[in-house]
Amino acid sequence: MSMVLPDGYILDIIGPFHGTKNDASITEHVLRTNNSLKNRIEDGDTMIVDRGFRDVVPVFTDLGYEVKMPYYLEKGNKQYTTLQANESRLVTKVRWTVESFHTRLKKSQFFSNRIENQMLPKLEYCIRIISACLNCYRGAIVQNYNSLESQAVAAAMKDRKGKCNTLLALIETGKTNARQRWSEIDEANIDFPLMDLDDLRVLFFGSYQIK
Question: Does the record bear Metal-binding in its keywords (predicted)?
Fold first, then answer.
């Protein structure tokens, strides 16, 4: 189990664990037995987790931490509400550094090759050493989190979180039905927004969470 900071630095990594253990049981075990880890976390800190940790959310809450996790689709529902989908995107946007760190870890030469059986007792030390080397020599994954561009993206995501899904409204009212009577338009009478190069970069190359 790894604890990754928002900028991509690894705070701690513990394991490996048996394959029969899930994320929730591993987390509960670590939080209840690792006192040094508790000393690095303060009350009110936010834990960004994936859906595999849903069974351990009460443990985080009891310890005084705030938990952010993508929504689960409730039984009987075919899709998320607009607010649920937008809030899940916010979690994904912050949590991508965890996946990026694991990609770095797996690309190391040690893990790219077959690991011999005699190395298994030392595997925990190898993981921690490689993680420390990534911190030291590769640095943060997010280099410009205080830049104006990053702040603008964050502000746009927070602003759009509560906006209505206009496309869903059109679908529910039947206005996108193929049997509807369509009207012809051309470039002269369409209200298309003016976009500069920065707008185009965000639209085609930026984070999908703000589209």
Answer: yes
Q: Is the pTM of this model over 0.85?
A: no
Largest separation between any pair of C-alpha atoms in the chain: 72
So what's the pLDDT on residue 36? 67
Domain boundaries along the sequence of the chain: 2-138, 148-210
d(CA 117, CA 135) in angstroms, rounded, equals 27
**C-beta separation of 55 from 74 below 8 A:** no
Distance CA 67, CA 193 (A): 38
Query: Which alpha helices (H) appear in the chain, and where do they start and end?
Result: 23-33, 35-38, 57-62, 82-106, 109-112, 123-133, 148-160, 166-172, 197-205
DSSP H helical segments within 79-136, as ranges?
A: 82-106, 109-112, 123-133
Nearest residue to 134 via CA among 116, 154, 109: 109
